[in-house]
Amino acid sequence: MRKSFFPLLLCSIFCFLSLPIFADLKDGKKAYSRKDYTEALKQFQKYNDGNPSSGEAWMYMGYIYESKKDYPKSIQAFKKAVSLNLPKKDLVNSLTKIILYHNYQRDYGEVISYSNRLLKIDPELSHIQKIRAAAEERHSSGGTYRKPTYHEEEAEQESVSSLEKKLKQDPNNKEILWQLALAYYNEKEFSKSETILSGLVKSEPDNIEYGYKYGALLVRISKYDEALSVLNRIEPKIPSEREKLLYFTHLTQAAAYHKKKNFEEASRYYKKAHANKHTVLPLIGLTKIKWQLKDCENAIKTAEKALEYGEKTREIRMYIGLCKVQLGQKEEGYDLLKEIAHAIEKENPDLKDLPDVYYDGFLKLARYYTNNGNYEKALKYFQAVQPDEEEEREYKFYLGKAYLYTGSVDKAISLLERVEDSAGAYYLLAKCYAEKSNIDQVMVNIKKAATIKSSYWGSAERDKAFKKFKSDDSFKNFLETRAGTRDPKRPDDNKDDSDSHDGD
């Protein structure tokens, strides 16, 4: 009897000491269920302090910060949770949250790391397999893939500072130089990476890994001609068994030609990349080219084929929406674009660091909202994107118009003055200067607009923006005589009933 007492006593003491700790967890869950997040966070932190090996409270904190749209803190909490003890179901859910977040942010090294860990737990998760495969395509360093690490199980990858110290001790070591170039690239220190890679390529012009990565870097920093010179030289040297390196080389060549608007060569290399490896990326490139060439029926066919891969469906559907607008199916096309934009805004309300693959869709919607008078929405979308050179003129015009109608007149003037030989831009400038009561500039810009499109004389006579100047004899005479070019008694034979005075 005495022998059984001490185990019983110890058990009782343990249970007694555990009560407050588990009470914190229980109280935290109750507060979480009634959405009292401040109290929940307080109780979960108390639980964490007393029970540092459990990840359960950290997981709930991740969900709370997610609800509060504080995504960086949410992912921090989920990462802490998966580094501790969690039931399998909770571990799978937390790892999935981390993977999806990094996939959206295009942190492909993190995507691969956490996907590897999750697939060890549950190898049958096909959607995670697809996400990892796509991430590997983007993250590859030219065929020699180095598995990224996740900190909970393996040593952290060597840092830039560590490699720099090694290089000081052994400045001619090519392996250190190569690893440092890759590290600089991953840290987006492209000029430093370029310096090293340029030297490595000069020292070993036949090294296909050096050549590929140097070419990829040059594309990244918009040196497309230099990139193609390097990539076109190494492409024939890549053996056929290096299928993965060939795929990435062809894909990078396609991207460079695409940026140069050489659609024929870009299409050829996208097709070569797809022949190397049947993935969705070359098909997305081909879809965009067909849309840019206004071959929308074939663009939609290619997009539908791309959708079969089950990846990147949002950006593929975006091009289907753009094509439908171009084909005249405007209601269906804009509804699809709005649906995609709404989903993105739900995840990223401020549209911060919007991936450039969505620029075309958001630009189209920005113009749509401008033309429909929703200037606040238009302005938000314009500010989220960076247009390419071909779209720069139209971008400035529509953004200037949005600024005018949201009260930012000086910003509107700054943009519209850079849109040359546009009747619509000159007319909007006249309206801007009317807001500033600068009658001289109003007349200068009305005249410029009407010289290109004479119907703007009639528009100016009817426009409420210029009503304040109607009592000014010089302005009245300016309009009646068409800036001194006709008899004021002559009837207006340039009247345009459409009065489309805000178009470019």
UniProtKB/TrEMBL annotation:
Keyword Signal annotated: yes
Disordered as annotated region, ranges: 135-167, 480-504
Residues making up the signal peptide according to the UniProt record: 1-23
Keywords, sorted A to Z: Repeat, Signal, TPR repeat
Pfam families for the chain: ANAPC3 (PF12895), TPR_16 (PF13432), TPR_19 (PF14559)
InterPro entries found in the cross-reference section: CellSynth/LPSAsmb/PSIAsmb, Sel1-like, TPR-like_helical_dom_sf, TPR_rpt
Transmembrane parts of this sequence: none
Feature: compositional bias, Basic and acidic residues: 483-504
Per-repeat ranges for TPR: 55-88, 359-392
Keyword Repeat applies: yes
NCBIfam families noted in UniProt: TPR_END_plus
Protein name: Tetratricopeptide repeat protein
Source organism: Leptospira sarikeiensis
Lineage of the organism: Bacteria, Pseudomonadati, Spirochaetota, Spirochaetia, Leptospirales
